[in-house]
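INPUT
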Amino acid sequence: MILTTNLRDKMKEIDKPWSPIEVARVNDQVVRMSLVDGEYHWHRHTGEDELFYVYEGSIVIQVIGQADITLRGGEMAVIPKGVEHCPKSLEPSYVLVFEPLVLKSEGD
Amino acid sequence: MILTTNLRDKMKEIDKPWSPIEVARVNDQVVRMSLVDGEYHWHRHTGEDELFYVYEGSIVIQVIGQADITLRGGEMAVIPKGVEHCPKSLEPSYVLVFEPLVLKSEGD
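OUTPUT
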């Protein structure tokens, strides 16, 4: 049985920031939705790229050694593996993250 | 240099249906955007799941042996590997597909 996932409904399942919920699995990847509110911490994922897609809101991804990346609703960016980064919100925002299932969401 | 991708801008790069353009690469996966207009053909991907996300519009994915799946803007579904399916539009629609980079987009 193939299920439909409505992202607006998923938003309602989230009750606190930085606590991703699983939205879908596809191959060896997982799609998670996270409420981005405030600032996370600087970290890197040594072996995996991480795709950020802003479903609603606007965020900044601070990246070591380059200008900040601003992402608004409908915008995405891929942080390559090994690149130190730190997301923060410009307003409370709902963000999809695509990453391998093995990835520790906390990073190193 | 990490680039930002705006899906609304990407829509403008597409000039004909069923001709996906690349939107992002993350790990061994690729994100493509396709204009879904009309009906595709029945096919399956033997080794890979395929995630459909409707960015704008509404589509139906016909799936062998189960009820049709209707996806509207902000909705997604994963077609498991091996499952025969056939997408069609309810209106001209812009759809993201997540699949492994090796996947032949035409299917078998």
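end of record. Residues 5 and 94 of chain B are 15 Å apart (CA to CA).
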